Hints:
There is one protein chain. 34% of the residues lie in helices and 28% in strands. The chain contains 7 helices and 10 strands. Strands 6-7-8-3-9-10 form a 6-stranded mixed beta sheet, sandwiched between helices. A 4-stranded antiparallel beta sheet has the order 2-1-4-5, covered by helices on one side. It starts with a strand and ends with a helix.
Amino acid sequence: xxxxxxxxxxxxxxxxxxxxxxxxxxxxxxxxxxxxxxxxxxxxxxxxxxxxxxxxxxxxxxxxxxxxxxxxxxxxxxxxxxxxxxxxxxxxxxxxxxxxxxxxxxxxxxxxxxxxxxxxxxxxxxxxxxxxxxxxxxxxxxxxxxxxxxxxxxxxxxxxxxxxxxxxxxxxxxxxxxxxxxxxxxxxxxxxxxxxxxxxxxxxxxxxxxxxxxxxxxxxxxxxxxxx
Length: 228
């Protein structure tokens, strides 16, 4: 169980997270949805130990969460220059005994012998994901993992995330769009103005779109009909 209790965090004097709390048991995929600036990346940075919260605490199985227990795929990952994909992956110890690079490569289509600076955005995202799942962590954080991926690779990433859940891991996944989260998540949290304003379980996922965008859709659709 991951217990997040009253986390307040931000940058210098700007408070972004306004006392966030949530509990996630092992073997669960939690989606985080929010507009730009809602605090998704800040939330992940706190869980990963990159940002120290102003207040609150995080525990895993009753003990303080250690950043070494988390694996983090950021929205935009940093890569050293003039190294190949293979060289990048060698930086990370393989602590996940189930990880089999050769079995995964035919489905990810990554030219690991090429320099990373020649990669597309989607290729870089896939490489970062491989580096994280190569490691055995208790909590995995995927910030916009579907950005820049084609449909087939999107499905592969969904299956990778589901496999981590099957290994009894806790997985947080953020996205600007609902569809991939509805497919893969057990629960979806709406992050607004630094708090989790709403929570949806799988049986209620059909209500999310209408509750978030129903009135907005009607208003904008009327404007569009009169504008085109």
